[in-house]
Structure formats: C-alpha cells, structure tokens
Amino acid sequence: MSLPTPSMTLYVSNLETKTKKPELHSQLYSLFTPYGRVIDIIAKKHDGGRGQAFVTFDEQAAATSAMRALHGELFYSKELKITYSRNPSNSTIARTNPDASREAAAVRAAKLTVSNAQGEYEQLEKDREAEELKALGGKRNLEDGDQGDGEPAAKRAKGDEADDEEMEIEMDMDDEDAEGSEGKDGKSVVCTNLPPECNEQIMSALYSQYPGFSRAGPLPSSRSAPSSHPAPNPGAKSFLITFETAEQAKGAVSETKAYLMQPGWEMGVSVDQ
C-alpha cells in the first residue's frame, strides 16, 4: 500500500453510512483511543462525505500505529480503509501555527465586522447630533416668541428636567427587570471562558449566523458559570446570548460547544435554564 506523506491526521473511509453521527463519533473515538491521544474526530454525514471521517492524534507515532493496526479491520461489518490525510486538520494547524487556524480566521473576520459596524455607528451618531442641534435651534426660536405667554422660561425648563429624570428612572427599572428575568425560559445560551479582548460585538458576529439570534450581552455579575463548563482562564469573560426560542438556543449550543476562540481558550457553552 503506497502511503502519502506521514500525518497526525488519518483519513478513514468505507464507513457504514446509516449510523447516526453521535454514535459514529463515539465508536470511532473508542476504536482509535487505545493507540494514542485523539484530539479531534470529524465524521462526515452530508452528501459527498458519507462514509468518511478524519481522526487526528497529538503524535505522529500514534497515528501510524493506529493506521497499521486498524486498516482492513471490520467496523460495523465493513472493512476500514485508512491512510494518512493529504491535508493537516484544523486541530493540527491550531497547534503548530495558531495564526493560520480556522478560529484565528474567525476572530479576524469578527474584528473586521466590529470595525465596520463601529464606523457606521459613529456616522449615525454624528447624524443624530446634527439633527438634535438643528431641532434645538428651532426650539429656542419658538421659546423666544412665546415669552409673553405668562409662564417663565426658567419654570418651563425646570419642568422639562423633572420629566426627563422621571423617564430615566422608569427606563432604569425596565432594564433591571429585563436583566433579572433574561434566560429563565431556556431561550438563552451561557458562554464562559472567553478571552479578555472578546466583547459583545464579537459574540454577536459569532452567533448571528444561527437562526433566531436576538442579542449578546455580558453575563450579569450576580450569575456564576455552570459547573459543567471548563475552568475559566485568568481574566476570562462570560456572555449571555439570547434567541427567540428554546429550540434555536439548543441548536446554537450544539454547533458551538467546545469552540476555540483562541488556542487554549475552550469556550464553555450551555442553555441557561
């Protein structure tokens, strides 16, 4: 059997195609683990990739031993075909060159999205301030024309300030109520162990690709990370991601579980219940 260039990632084919993906992933892990530490398994089930998988070890010797021992072995009544992968897996790239990994590319894309959004936000703020100044000039002209209506301008201004303060108090109470109730219906996702430079814009860029995304915000200080999450790194941040339905929140969790925002920063993800 002619072999490609040795690789820590093995290409496994001729797999049984009717097995559910979670079961296939679990059985492949059990099959290959005795030969060394398995750091990643990608089992393909979509059209064009059925019956194939990529198994990545943390050492070259372990990958070679597994290939020699398991090639031709029966797995779900079919003979396994195993060879070295022609291309390194994303897990291998992340270990050898973190800047070239898929996660690093996602961070760069998210930062670019945030930068563009920040520019648009600043322009909108400038336009809003210009409109306010224009409206304020018209209001002053109107007040100058109404000085003879019997109500002193100072009294009117004081009344306006009182109304503004009352409105601010009501808005603060609404925000507190929203913060206290958010996430108790299973529609939110708790994300922990995020790098210090991560912010709401980056989390929004990550989760806006999933159906039902509503908003991203910091996890309230009164909340603690779920016990099932990995221990946070020093300086780690936590966020609460809100979706329209509980099913959409569960779908986002399954897609981003153990996501690496940066090498060494495994994100803890779970539905907030």
UniProtKB/TrEMBL annotation:
Region (Disordered): 136-166, 211-237
Composition skew (Low complexity), residue ranges: 214-236
Gene3D superfamilies, per the entry: 3.30.70.330
Coiled coil segments of this chain: 107-134
Domain RRM, first and last residues per copy: 8-87
The keyword Kinase appears for this protein: no
UniProt-recorded Gene Ontology molecular function terms: RNA binding
Keywords assigned by UniProt, alphabetized: Coiled coil, RNA-binding
A Pfam family matched in the record: RRM_1
Keyword RNA-binding: yes
PANTHER family registered for this protein in UniProt: U1 SMALL NUCLEAR RIBONUCLEOPROTEIN A/U2 SMALL NUCLEAR RIBONUCLEOPROTEIN B (PTHR10501)
Name of the molecule in the record: RNA-binding domain-containing protein
